[in-house]
Amino acid sequence: MSRVAVVTGSNKGIGLEIVRGLCKQFDGIVYLTARNEKLGQEAVQKLKSEGLNPSFHQLDITNEQSIQALKQHLQDKHGGLDVLVNNAGFAYKGTDTTPFGIQAENSAGINFFGTLAASKALLPIIKPHGRVVNVSSQGSNMSLKKCSPDRQARFRDRSIQEEELVKLLNKFIETAKEGTNKKHGFSDSAYGMSKIGVTVLTFIQAREMEKDSREDILVNCMCPGWCKSDMGGWEKPTKTAADGADTALFLALLPPNTKEPQGQFFYDRKPIPF
Prior knowledge:
The chain is an alpha/beta fold. The protein has helices at residues 13-25, 37-49, 64-78, 100-122, 139-145, 149-156, 162-178, 190-211, 241-252, and strands at 3-7, 28-34, 55-58, 81-86, 126-135, 218-223, 265-267, 270-272.
């Protein structure tokens, strides 16, 4: 059977560049996914016009039915998958006037809870020698430093369980709605807190994979940096979306039987502390 790669949220920006890179370097089928089928199909046609050959599947990581439809397709047609890049994400602009509680709920809902839901469905069908890359942000590091010492200690504890992480992110949303998030030890960045969730989730997933009977599945996360994109803006960022995709591709294409890296946070192809 052909090897299979899936990139979530990949009809534009860094996700599209990851798909482009995989189409050139990955020996197998590459799925470009998007919430909006029309935009996803347009992105596929764009890459096909360049001589590349991605496949398309609709995916909304905040919709369980959509996630399960992708999982079923991958199982039925390919017997699973080999590379998962959890790229789908969302950020409010700094000038956005949406109330902070709503920003917290939506940012964590997509970036953390959506990534968690997609992972819960797809990690069980990853084949031996699989690679999982979660797109996080150094915004998680910046937010962590603004959390209380107690909260920092919990997020940094490599023995933290998924259940506790979920409770912490729900507590952040609840206190953000009340306007008491800082008093409860959380930072004042909805995006940063959501990406703390993604980074810590990576450490948990990697730890679980170490106990798994499937051989050689590596789970890491990375920061693409500040890239020219709809999310990052177009004028100020110094990196292109292709620059941002580079480390994700590096981690997704780690050769078989590579023992490391496992459960690490990368920037510019180098591990960084959390």
